[in-house]
Specification:
single chain, alpha+beta, 129 residues
């Protein structure tokens, strides 16, 4: 009986510690807007992360001083490209869907090449000095 109570309390603890992620309710129309950086929770989070990384380094010390976010379309779907813009760094960007789902990283076969991305534009960047 005691083992059962321990097991039950463990399940309750594990179940209580699991957080439900907030559904990402942004669609292609929202991703095309000029306010996407203000309206998208996941993009705001990425920008905070990139700002923190940028403040800790520079392109000359640890290749973490310059980052960008670009927006474009592949087969009619809005995508976001997040990458490093330090000169001389061979780094493949990461690609996200409109809802913030990572679908490509480190030059795998699913990654678009920049020439495949229509209407590509840099929508945010940061560079430390």
């Amino acid at each position: 009986m005691i083992k059962f109570l321990y097991y039950l309390s463990f399940l309750v603890f594990v179940g209580a510690s699991c957080q439900q992620t907030e559904p990402r309710n942004i669609d292609n129309k929202d991703c095309k807007s000029d306010n996407v950086l203000k309206n998208s929770t996941w993009l705001k989070e990425k920008i905070r992360e990139l700002e923190a990384y940028s403040s800790k380094g520079s392109c000359s010390t640890n290749f973490s001083g310059c980052f960008y976010i670009a927006r474009g379309q592949v087969h009619g779907e809005i995508i976001f490209e997040i990458g490093i813009c330090c000169p001389g760094v061979d780094y493949a960007p990461a690609y996200y869907n409109c809802d913030g789902t990572l679908f490509c990283e480190f030059k795998n076969n699913n990654c678009p090449i920049q020439s495949d991305i229509d209407d590509r534009e840099i929508i945010w960047s940061i560079s430390s000095k």
